């Protein structure tokens, strides 16, 4: 199939891109890596009047260490993140999860910002940035806004991006050295969208108790399911053993409200949410380095 007719513009820089978005508003779509948008155009699931190509903009392709955390430009290729030693050292959760995103061929073209702005509820990266309590930086001709990840994702393929705004970067805050993390998902085949997945990160104190954590699920609703507050009630200040990780996971599984679809019924997704949340929490706890001890293999 061919896309519906549209007018095509190449933005030379961020200012030109946000100028075009300000001019065309919700009649425009932004093209970055094109791994999600191009198929939707071809199937005429979206029919923009204007297509704004930002792929040649310089300055939005970067991975930087800032105040102990990571700042990643929206045009950074997923494969660049996957191969980054800095990401692997500073944010192992992202390094682990990025390998589950599509296939290597799609990661060569797909961008971090494109995946986040697309907001597929079965995509890995929205859950990862939610678990990590990341911020997303948005820019328009009126200025900049910075939103927490949990504010940004509003529904299936729906975000808080206004028609005149461009996502320019994601900012992942610092988590202490020794924080443990884990990502796990179930999919029918390697590279398929996950049926359900879980991303967890956990910091432990010298006494072994949980000081800080984050967890988010994919495939368990119309957006990343932020289960941090549920897990916090069960685990903060506790030794994260198998029993209380399982108890937290059961509460998470009882709280998700997935829909049934051709891939899996709702009850099965709830079961997977329970199993994978428990697995991710316990694995993150085991990987966390307890200060003053040698054991553990967190970051």
Short structural summary:
The protein folds into three domains: 7-53, Uridine Diphospho-n-acetylenolpyruvylglucosamine Reductase, domain 2, CATH 3.30.43.10; 63-172, Uridine Diphospho-n-acetylenolpyruvylglucosamine Reductase, domain 3; 180-287, CO dehydrogenase flavoprotein, C-terminal domain (Enolase-like, domain 1). Helix content is 35%, strand content 24%. It has helices at 14-24, 37-42, 78-82, 85-90, 92-98, 104-109, 112-118, 124-131, 149-152, 228-235, 242-255, 266-287, and strands spanning 7-10, 28-31, 50-53, 63-66, 69-73, 135-140, 143-148, 153-155, 158-159, 166-172, 180-186, 196-204, 210-218, 225-226.
Would you mind describing this structure in some detail?
With 299 residues, the protein is an alpha+beta fold. It folds into three domains: 7-53, Uridine Diphospho-n-acetylenolpyruvylglucosamine Reductase, domain 2 (2-Layer Sandwich), CATH 3.30.43.10; 63-172, Uridine Diphospho-n-acetylenolpyruvylglucosamine Reductase, domain 3 (2-Layer Sandwich), CATH 3.30.465; 180-287, Enolase-like, domain 1, CATH 3.30.390.50. It is built from twelve helices and 14 strands. The chain has helices at 14-24, 37-42, 78-82, 85-90, 92-98, 104-109, 112-118, 124-131, 149-152, 228-235, 242-255, 266-287; strands at 7-10, 28-31, 50-53, 63-66, 69-73, 135-140, 143-148, 153-155, 158-159, 166-172, 180-186, 196-204, 210-218, 225-226. The strands form four sheets. The protein has a five-stranded antiparallel β-sheet with strand order 4-5-10-6-7. A four-stranded antiparallel β-sheet has the order 11-12-13-14, with helices on both faces. Helix 10 runs antiparallel to helix 11. The radius of gyration is 19 Å and the shape is globular.
